[in-house]
Amino acid sequence: MGSATTQALAATTRALDTASDIDLGVAGELFAVARAVGDSSQLSGALADSAADPAARRRVVQDVFGRAVSPATIGLLGAAVDQRWSSSADMVEGIEELAIRAAARADGAADIEDELFRFSRTVAANPELELALGSRRGDDAAKGTLVSSLLNGRASAATVLIASSLVQQPRERRVRRLLSWAMRLVADQRGRTVATVFTAVPLSEAQRSRLATTLSTRYGTQVSVNAVVDPNVVGGLRVQIADDVIDASVASRLADLRQRLAG
User: The dihedral of CA 182, 107, 78, 168: what is its sign?
Assistant: First the structure.
């Protein structure tokens, strides 16, 4: 990610934080706009052209989408095209990020991170489903419908919207990576971070709570814990938070011992 995109994402996030009338309708419109812009190299190029005047880029947004989306969505899109992006692809992903954050804000009571995590584990455990959602040949709208049918009644409206929207425009990104990205964004929007914990046996609720408290203290922010049972861990646990890995598993210690014995 280029420095221009990093600054652009920070600016659009601030715009969302100060915006009013943000609901799931706005999030859905942002996802739809991201698909439309991503499908048109001419439109994405015009909106991401840093040589063009920002006012001109805003006029393009108004001309193309003004009658189709709400004023709140137009305002957020205007904030996005005001920015300088490292590439047009980064701008499209930035609009998707706005959509995910808007959904997290709109449905604050829903446990979106956990629901997305559970769906990602379902995908991981079902190779046929992962192939169907990740296939380049499949109809994108049908992928969204499939995800909606799997999650309706089992997850919040925000989670259904996020998951079903992302699979419709993967752009060479694997489904599980998209879901993990969405989980991190939802957590960040809510002022916390996500830890994925791998253990040989399921954690009790008390253990999860103690671990979350310990990690929150260590990282200085609220941490939510997603647990994965992995027999390869053998004993202990392995924790991954963003790029940090804390490996306190028996398997890791055995591997270190074998390496030392091998010279």
Answer: positive
